[in-house]
């Protein structure tokens, strides 16, 4: 039987992923891309969010346009006052922040692997364990993080490092930090205002609700989100490029409603024969989206505060509109602790998030769900 030292040597990860022989490693571009791929593959956002691989801490994304107003007029009414004379521009800057973590690999664990896995299998398994944990923490943080918000995250929480997607959407009105000077603001709908004056929604509650009086119609809140999305983003097959992003609990509520209706579509979706969708728009489960959010209509508002209620969100937006910037500055360092009979693996990476076009986002807030 191999002893711990020989096993550690046998299973060491080569340049870029080395447990023992290299005390500090900065991954080259190809190795960093591989590490990023691991993280992305473990995320439920992998096929939806846009990944920007960055070589420097900052990267600008610019939008240019002519702002609001018409381009064409009846010829008899066209004059100099109708000229478009001024550009509108909007700059989005990705500015990565550094996060660190560590795992401990005990000699005994390597002994248990003797003769059961190859070096390549061990390398792959180790990196997937690390990146699965990273992906889970980042996915939750990307949505609910805020530097100054109702949650008041402690200094040692990564959710205080940047403003997440939700904060950017709810702070994109004219004059606010994330207003887009070219396209405008995000579109916010409050499900809990259903049935009140000014709301298109008649039935507050879950994603699908049935009226309690004849003719007992069903109301799907996905419908009102599609209605609120500007038509220019739905044209030219734009709906097929969009998705609803929500907690898996919301999807289950939708399944339950379809099952209750006993339709062919409901049976097909519920049995898994077709992927979940509303109309032509797919529904993507994001299990780490919070389900204990507060009420944006309360006084004072508890919008976005975890633990302040039992609400959740749904986001409708085109693919690649949400941006994750990950810098190719990935470091892996090791430290041998003989007293613990273990090797400590430290890793660090830099990242940021952004939204390219908040106007192409519809956020449904204060939505109830079945626990």
Structural write-up:
- With 371 residues, the chain is an alpha+beta fold.
- Helices cover 25% and strands 26% of the residues.
- The chain has nine helices and 16 strands.
- The protein has helices at residues 4-10, 29-41, 107-112, 119-144, 165-170, 221-228, 231-234, 248-261, 264-271; strands at 24-26, 50-54, 58-65, 88-95, 97-106, 187-190, 208-210, 218-220, 242-246, 277-278, 281-285, 312-318, 322-327, 331-337, 342-355, 362-367.
- Strands 1, 2, 5, 13, 14 and 15 form a six-stranded mixed sheet that branches. Strands 6-16-12-9-11-10 form a six-stranded mixed sheet. A two-stranded antiparallel ribbon has the order 3-4.
- Helix 2 (29-41) packs across helix 4 and helix 8 (248-261) runs antiparallel to helix 9.
- The protein is globular.
């Amino acid at each position: 039987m191999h002893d711990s030292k020989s096993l550690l040597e046998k299973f060491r990860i080569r340049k870029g992923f080395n447990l023992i022989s290299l005390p500090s490693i900065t991954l080259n571009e190809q190795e960093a891309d591989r590490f990023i791929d691991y993280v992305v593959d473990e995320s439920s956002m992998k096929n939806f969010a846009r990944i920007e691989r960055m070589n420097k801490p900052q990267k600008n994304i610019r939008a240019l346009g002519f702002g609001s107003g018409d381009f064409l007029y009846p010829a008899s009414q066209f004059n100099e006052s109708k000229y478009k004379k001024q550009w509108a521009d909007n700059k989005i800057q990705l500015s990565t922040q550094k996060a660190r973590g560590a795992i401990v690999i005990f000699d005994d664990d390597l002994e248990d692997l003797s003769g059961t896995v190859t070096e390549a299998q061990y390398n792959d398994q180790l990196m997937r364990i690390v990146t699965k944990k990273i992906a889970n923490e980042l996915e939750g943080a990307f949505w609910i993080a805020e530097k100054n918000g109702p949650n008041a995250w402690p200094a040692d929480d990564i959710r205080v490092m940047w403003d997440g997607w939700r904060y950017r959407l709810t702070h994109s009105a004219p004059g606010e930090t994330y207003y887009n000077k070219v396209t405008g603001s995000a579109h916010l709908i409050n499900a809990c205002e259903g049935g009140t004056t000014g709301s298109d929604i008649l039935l507050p509650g879950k994603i699908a609700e049935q009226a309690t009086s004849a003719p007992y119609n069903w109301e799907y809140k996905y419908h009102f989100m599609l209605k609120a999305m500007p038509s220019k983003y739905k044209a030219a097959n734009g709906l097929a490029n969009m998705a609803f992003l929500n907690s898996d609990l919301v999807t289950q509520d939708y399944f339950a409603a379809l099952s209750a209706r006993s339709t062919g579509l409901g049976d097909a979706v519920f049995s898994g024969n077709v992927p979940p969708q509303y109309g032509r728009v797919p529904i993507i489960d994001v299990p780490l989206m919070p389900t204990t959010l507060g009420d944006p209509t309360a006084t004072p508002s508890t919008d976005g505060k975890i633990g302040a209620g039992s609400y959740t969100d749904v986001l409708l937006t085109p693919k690649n509109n949400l941006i994750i910037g990950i810098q190719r500055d990935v470091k892996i360092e090791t430290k041998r602790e003989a007293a613990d009979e273990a090797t400590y693996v430290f890793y660090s990476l830099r990242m940021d998030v952004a939204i390219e076009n908040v106007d192409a986002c519809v956020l449904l807030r204060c939505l109830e769900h079945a626990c």
